[in-house]
Amino acid sequence: MLPHVRPRLCRKDNWLAFRASSKTTMEHATDPKHLATITTLNERGSRALSLQFTLISNVFLVIVPTALGFVGSLAPLFIAVNVWGSLSVRSFLIVLGTSVGVTVCSIAIWATRFPEWPMNQWLDQRLRNRCRKRFQSSPDHSMKFWIDSAPMCEYVRREAMQATLFPKLETASDIALIRIHADGITMEGDRARYSFPAASILGTTIETIRPAGCFHKLHYVHVFVRTEQGTDEFPISLRDCGWGRLSAKKRRVDAEQLAERINQIATGSEYELSDPDYARRAQTSPTNSINPYAVAASLSPARP
Question: In this structure, which of 92, 184, 211, 243 has its CB flanked by the most CB atoms within 10 Å?
Fold first, then answer.
């Protein structure tokens, strides 16, 4: 009998931490109840994260620093002239220098403190309203109670995180309300419904990136799960941060807490195994994207 190992997922080239004996692992790999599922939602009406919302959000991100620059630099001069009349050159330079300094500081704080926050509050309400309407006509009332309290996160595919020459209008593949419970993870999304049973969750890692064209950092929790197609990762990031949680440091803490909650309920793996064939496959197929966290071929679900 192998000793019990604390749930964790090591981010190494050829290591996979998983919680189960070989017999249990085989059952997890073949039993559909132990696999993560994604159900596409085909609904009428505009989505919460629509093209219209994306365009408005990007225009907002451009207008705010521009307005801060003009108003912050010129408003103090306008007020000073109207209060004191004509200004000497020295007084003019003092007022101008002070206003420019304050303006630069304000823009720097805005750019580095999660500038998407105001628009994300609007997006949060749009998604919750959409979910409420979705369940009004549904006979399943069990999910209604957590719609108002569940945090909103975004799901971003790995390829969307890569740096590009020009910033993207939107990197999120979907946004969802996430609920973590003893049986697993349920995410009610704008485009799809995600169900990750606890037995399908292998573990999590945290990655911090700075998107192209941004001055602030984003923290993603990579959730590794088993699906019918094999092991896959779902990078998610909280998007409805509170007013007092906008700094990169505090958002990192929130990401770590989210990852810890997921690890506590994950039962998809229990022991560390290595893939001895990983190095050879990586050398012989350098152009292929090899997932070092994938379940070994002998444990993968049989495909037709």
Answer: 184
